[in-house]
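Pasting as-is:
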Amino acid sequence: MSVVAFTELTVSDWPLSVAWYRDGLGFPVTLLDELNQFALLGNLALKHGTPNPGTTLVHVQVPSLSATLAHLATLNIHPVGELKTSHEGYTRARLTDPDGH
């Protein structure tokens, strides 16, 4: 048996959110259904509707946090708050998408 899992977010401006995740964070487009405003970007699904931010966290591991943040800054995407280093030793930045997820 093969299991496929993904996280689904409901977004208010579907084209903007697809671009934010695809172009900003580099999520690969697996499926793009413009008619039904549904996209699968790797293991993240975006569908048009009324968002409910704060109910789902999406964690992304990147090869270089500083390079990723520099790229995002060119797109006017900036972390919310300060960078934090966990007691396990990794550094994280918190971002919110256009709907506040």
